Give the backbone structure.
Amino acid sequence: MGKITSLASPEVKCSNSFLYLIFSFFSGTLETGILTSGIIIFDLSIGLALVLAYQIGCLARNPLHFNLKAAACALGCAVLLFQFGETNVWLLFLSTVFMSSGLQSAREYLLPGQNLVSVSTKRLTRVAGFVFGIIGCFNIGLTLIFYIAIVSFLLLMPSALENKSKISFINLENEFKAYDFGWIMFFHQTHYFVYAYVLLSFLLSPKSQMADGPISQPLGASMWFALGWFSYISASVLLKKILKLSAFYSAIVGHAWVVLNLGVMLFLVEGQPFLLKLTWVFCGFGGGSVYAIKELAKADCCKADLELWEHWGHVSGVTIAFMSVQFFPTYPTAPFCIAIAAALITLILLLIAGSRTRQSRLV
């Protein structure tokens, strides 16, 4: 993998496990909460536009690395804009970009070194944030996001003022070429974000057959969404430890499984809500093979900054989802068709990369 500038280097000395997990939780809350608020207050198109703003904020801090003071300034701007943006979509969009970039930058700086926080703890904290965002914003809307912005700003300010980092306010240092595995990561992430938020909107919409009733609606939506993430998180255990597949075959089998399940979803999206939810959970076992892409890129000494292309994939997927809802509002299967295409491209690129690797070993 290419060089990724470490913002939590020993020189900075600002790692903080507690704040890191708090901001991870808040980041997850913002992601699903801003989507839920947009859907409930406006419509699906606005919800997707606002969650696109979240993803743009995530992308902004790579390659534009903010130090803690810059992150605090971004959160401060979010607080100010949220006060005037409750009914103004453009102000909401900007405030979400600022809040997202501030939270992600703070997390990067506060990331604990030497594996003080396990990967499972990080992921479970984020999934808990997803659940809280869905339930909280379904009930009190943007008020929850506003309070989280204020709390985040207040929590970060002491660390930002005390930090004597030599890293500039905004730091630009990255490898921008995708190479093979950058494109593979791009299409992998695109396939997920084309349909995932749309599926969550089905779970949340009172008019949808997938909704679990007015009382249990946010609880049911958050439960199914979280189950999809639990299967995603468990994929490495299934593919690597139980099935004992190599990284290459994990990626191939995982993406073939994704294509199969998305194909099944096409036939379920308009008439079989329970089976669609179940297929969503099964699909996570394939999508979680993303770990294998990272392992393959590392083994291949790929120079691409995979994190950067991961974020580009997020932005691409949500943008395509937004456009599909705009241009094909009466075709709920459109995002799933595009997701299949992106997953197939990922699979083909993996096979090409694997073939090149085998040929290079024979030379």
Q: What stands out?
A: The longest helix spans residues 334-362. The chain has a mean pLDDT of 87. The radius of gyration is 20 Å. The beta strands are 64-66, 170-172.
